[in-house]
C-alpha cells in the first residue's frame, strides 16, 4: 500500500490545531505519516501536540519562516509517495485521503488531485458550499482565470512531480498556493474527486490590513502565470485580472467595516468591470453591487443587519457536513 505524507504547517494555532489533527486521525485511509511543522509558535501549540498519542505523527520545530517555508520544510522531511497539506485551522471529511489517492491510482498520467471546498464560518458553527467544478487534464487555462483549488489544504501530489516543479516560493507572503498550483498545472495533469472534502475556515483576523498585501501578491502571481502560458492563452489575461479585482472587492466588503469598506469595494469592482464589462451580466457581480449599494445608501448598522440575515439564510448547519462524506 502506498505511503502518504500529510504536512501541517502551524504558527500559533492553539485554538484549532487539535481539531485539525483530529480530522487527519479520523481518515479512513490509515497508512500515512503526519508531519507537523511548528513554525516558531509562541503560544501553547507545542504543549497541546505533546499530549497527543499518535505514533504516525512527528513534530518538527523551527524558527518562524512563514507558510511557504514551513510547507517546504515538510516536503523536505516527507518520505511518502504522495504528499498533501492541511493548514492548522482547516478540516477534512474522513474519506479525503482515501478517495483522492484512489483517483490518482486510477489515473497514472495525472500528478495532482483536488476536491470541492466547504467554507466554514469563524465560529465553526455554519458553512456554505464552494463551486462544483470538474476541470481535469490540462487545467492551466482555468487556473489562470482563478485559483479554483481555493486553499493549500486541498491538493494531493505525487512526490515525483515536485522534482520538476520545485518548492513553494518563500518570497511570497500571500497567494503562494495559487503560484504553486499554476506551476504544477504547467507540467502536470490534474484530476478531481467530485465531492466536498475540504472544510476551509474563514478568518477575519487582520484581514483588513492584508487586502493590500494580497492585491500586491495576486498581481505578481497573475503576471508569473501568464509567463508560463502559451500565446494561445494570453487572451485570458484581462478576464483573469478582472476576476482578481472582483475578488478584492469581495474582501473589502467583507473585512473592512462600514462605508470605508464599501467605497474600497466599489473602486475594485469598477476596475474589474472596466477590464471585463460582461461581468455586469453575472449574478456574482450583481450581488456585490447590491451589497455595496445597501451599505452606501443605509446606515452601516442597518445594512449589516440585512446582510447578516442573508448570510444566515445561505449558511448550513455544521452538523450536516457529515452528509458529504
TrEMBL record:
Per UniProt, which keywords does this protein have?
Transferase
Molecular function as annotated in GO: transferase activity
Question: Cross-referenced Pfam families, in alphabetical order?
Answer: Glyco_tranf_2_2
Stretches assigned to the Glycosyltransferase 2-like prokaryotic type domain: 5-243
Q: Which domain of life is it from?
A: Bacteria
InterPro entries per record: Glycosyltransf_2, GlycosylTrfase-like_prok, Nucleotide-diphossugar_trans
CDD domains, from UniProt? Glyco_tranf_GTA_type
What is this protein identified as?
Glycosyl transferase family A
Amino acid at each position: 500500500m502506498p505511503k502518504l505524507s500529510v504536512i501541517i504547517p502551524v504558527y500559533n494555532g492553539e485554538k484549532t490545531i487539535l481539531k485539525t489533527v483530529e480530522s487527519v486521525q479520523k481518515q479512513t485511509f490509515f497508512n500515512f505519516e503526519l508531519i507537523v511543522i511548528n513554525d516558531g509558535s509562541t503560544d501553547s501549540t507545542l504543549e497541546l501536540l505533546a499530549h497527543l498519542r499518535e505514533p504516525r505523527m512527528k513534530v518538527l520545530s523551527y524558527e518562524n519562516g512563514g507558510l511557504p517555508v514551513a510547507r517546504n520544510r515538510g516536503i523536505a522531511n516527507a518520505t511518502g509517495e504522495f504528499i498533501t497539506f492541511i493548514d492548522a485551522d482547516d478540516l477534512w471529511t474522513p474519506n479525503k485521503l482515501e478517495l483522492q489517492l484512489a483517483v490518482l491510482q486510477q489515473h497514472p498520467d495525472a500528478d495532482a488531485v483536488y476536491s470541492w471546498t466547504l467554507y466554514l464560518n469563524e465560529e465553526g458553527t455554519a458553512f456554505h458550499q464552494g463551486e462544483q467544478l470538474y476541470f481535469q487534464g490540462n487545467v492551466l487555462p482555468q487556473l489562470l482565470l482563478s485559483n479554483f483549488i481555493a486553499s493549500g489544504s486541498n491538493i494531493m501530489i505525487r512526490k515525483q512531480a515536485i522534482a520538476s516543479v520545485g518548492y513553494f516560493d518563500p518570497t511570497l507572503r500571500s497567494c503562494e498556493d495559487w503560484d504553486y498550483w499554476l506551476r504544477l498545472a504547467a507540467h502536470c495533469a490534474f484530476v478531481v474527486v467530485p465531492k466536498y472534502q475540504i472544510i476551509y475556515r474563514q478568518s477575519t483576523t487582520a484581514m483588513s490590513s492584508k487586502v493590500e498585501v494580497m492585491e500586491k501578491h495576486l498581481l505578481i502571481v497573475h503576471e508569473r502565470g501568464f509567463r508560463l502560458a502559451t500565446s494561445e492563452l494570453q487572451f485570458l489575461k484581462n478576464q483573469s485580472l478582472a476576476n482578481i479585482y472582483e475578488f478584492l472587492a469581495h474582501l473589502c466588503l467583507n473585512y473592512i467595516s462600514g462605508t470605508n469598506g464599501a467605497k474600497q469595494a466599489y473602486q475594485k469592482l469598477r476596475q474589474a468591470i472596466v477590464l471585463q464589462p460582461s461581468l455586469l451580466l453575472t449574478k456574482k457581480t450583481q450581488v456585490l453591487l447590491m451589497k455595496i449599494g445597501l451599505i452606501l445608501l443605509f446606515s452601516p448598522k442597518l445594512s449589516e443587519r440585512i446582510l447578516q440575515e442573508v448570510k444566515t439564510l445561505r449558511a448550513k448547519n455544521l452538523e450536516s457536513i457529515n452528509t458529504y462524506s
